[in-house]
Amino acid sequence: MPGFTIVLNNTNRLLNLEIDTPSFFDKFKKEVNNFENVFFHSLTNNKFHDDKLFDADDDYFIGIDGFILNLRQLKSKYSVSDNFTLIRKIYKEDKKRFVNILKGDFCGFIYEKNTNKLTVFTNQTGTKRIFYYFKNNILIISSDFKFIVQILRNNSFDYCLDELGAYCLLSYGYMIKDITLINEIKKLEPGCLLISENTTMEIHRYYDYNNIEYSSDSKEKIISTIDELFSNAVELEYEKDL
What is the 3-state secondary structure (H, E, C) of 163-222? Predict the structure, then answer.
């Protein structure tokens, strides 16, 4: 599956981080980077290649998978010409809410080299899934559930079935909240950031549909606003396809 995998190892243990990918992925672009105790692995296809990012400077390493619909408008607003400079700039403005201004189907990460701080994010609706494992100062993050399982097996880490996840899958056909089929692996919920710094990890919610303000506008005004928002969304999608 296209996407990225990150392993943050704050132990003295040497991990086997070999990721075996099916031959189907041979046509995908593969990149591997290491910064001290952090390992990055990326698989990308050519679709929306200009939106994707896997680049670094002296202070930051930034990755974006998927597409951002308002990329052109944001570059114009912030007077920048490339994706790396744009994401770095909006991240430095507000490190816990910067994702909120991005619109599209995406997930990504930002790693601060000087502080060993890692921020991983998915979009407001969670259409690009991110899974994570955190135990004994080892953090594994991936957009592919199987890659995390593979790393756990390679290093003889214990894991077991999450019975609630199995019941959810059998009853509803999907799993709720952060639950997965493996007890030790969780899913990053929509509108959330995973923030890791040294040996700590926290989940921060940057967007919540429950906090949308109640509108007292007239019925006609609400219909007009919905029509305008829908038209703008269609325009963004259309421009992306050009």
Answer: HHHHHHHHHHCCCCCCCCCECCEEECCCCEEEEEECCEEEEEECCCHHHCCCCCCCHHHH
